[in-house]
Amino acid sequence: MSNLPIKVLVPSLPSVDQIEPYLRRIDLARVYSNFGPLATGFAQRLGGLTGANSVTLTSNGTSAIEIALRLRALPNRRLCVMPSFTFVASAHAVCNVGLTPAFVDIDPVSLVLTPEIVEATLPQLPELPAVVLVISAFGAPIDQESWARFQTRTGIPVVFDAAAAVTALSHVGDAPVCVSLHATKVLGIGEGGAILSSDPKFSERATAMTGFGFMGAERTSAIRGGNFRISEYAAAVGLAALDALPAKVDMLRNVALAYRTKIEATGRRARLQEGAGDWVTMSLNIIVEPEDVQATIAKLDAQKIQWRRWWGLGCHLHPAFADCPSFGLDSTNKVAPTVIGVPCHDGLSAEDIDRIVACFPIATHAPKVHERLPAGDLIEQDVSML
Questions:
Q1: Which residue from 52, 97, 363, 367 has the highest number of Cβ atoms inside 10 Å of its Cβ?
Q2: Residue 386, pLDDT score
């Protein structure tokens, strides 16, 4: 078995040949920014992909969250309830719009904040929050319906940070959904983001905020904003990325299913993140028991297999957010160390996945490998499609 290093992440953006036809359209139109024809077409296709009636493109995913929070947060309130278990960009976005993160716990299985957790926490808060920021865990689908009912019950608005979940969306409801188009995402353009909405009036204001608050034909700033647009060149990459997206989704799904099959076939005391393979991500996680964490990462290191804690151990442990209040983080503190990001990209072979999975502990009563040969055959078949 090879002992060459295995990278945890290998971004994959469109090639020069795939982008070139769109670049030629830029040359012909001689429009380079300011909501040009390629950016408009990209937004329309992104709306079709995600089931969003309206799309506001932004310079990155963090600015998308900031704009959505500025438009949705209730005035004269300072708290934003959010999970501590998320990438720090979410907390930075909250602070950048003048709100204070109030860190709360997650469900230990789904790894996300739930309406029930927020409602149980509300009596502990010093004041009612301005907004709730709900995070998709590493690209998993979000429960928009449950949160819509939460908004109706409480009157507290919700914003979704679905940074990596663009391909897990089939519709967008009342609350805005913010996605990242970073190179590390399934749909990547290098740097970029978007706010998806079912409310055209919301999107009109959000789009205006990306262009200095100009609304209508007059060059008058109707609302406060900034320059958060994408160029036509970024949109060209986006259109080419959409062209290539079905093949990329199939590849990532095959990788996740190969992991799942090998984990089950060899009786590992570990599991993929809930639902992984039904939805796809470039930040795939295998979750272990707390007592197995140190031995597992030691084996990965010894095998020269890169791994990551994509979100670290919680925002509440970062010095930048040490002064932010937190409420009941027992599940976060227990679960976060057990979530191990593993390689997930088109450079993996069946042998690589065997080698990675072998670093995870075997259950006490593990099935013998030869008893699960059909599953092993499936791994070979899946990965050979990459």
A1: 52
A2: 35
Phi-psi region of 366 (alpha: psi -120 to 50; beta: other; left: phi over 0): beta
- What does the H/E/C string look like for 14-30? CCHHHHHHHHHHHHHHC
8/25 Cα distance (integer angstroms)? 36
Q: What is the DSSP string of 53-88?
A: SEEEEESSHHHHHHHHHHHHSPTT--EEEEESSS-H
Kindly list the structural domains of the chain, giving each domain's residue range(s) and its CATH number in brackets, ordered by start. 16-240 (3.40.640.10), 245-384 (3.90.1150.10)
Is residue 299 part of the annotated active site? The answer reads: no
Strand 79-83 relative to strand 131-135: parallel, antiparallel, unpaired?
parallel
Q: Considering Cα of 244, then 246, then 248, then 249, what sign does the dihedral take?
A: positive
Q: Of the residues 185, 201, 304, 334, which is catalytic?
A: 185
In the chain the first and final C-alpha atoms are separated, in Å, by 20
Tens digit of each residue's pLDDT (9 = 90 or more) over 14-62: 999 999 999 999 999 999 999 999 999 999 999 999 999 999 999 999 9
Whether the pLDDT of residue 74 is over 90: the answer is: yes
What is the rounded distance in angstroms from the CA atom of residue 70 to the CA atom of residue 72?
6
User: Which residues partner with 131 through β-bridges?
Assistant: 80
pLDDT tens track for 276-317: 999 999 999 999 999 999 999 999 999 999 999 999 999 999
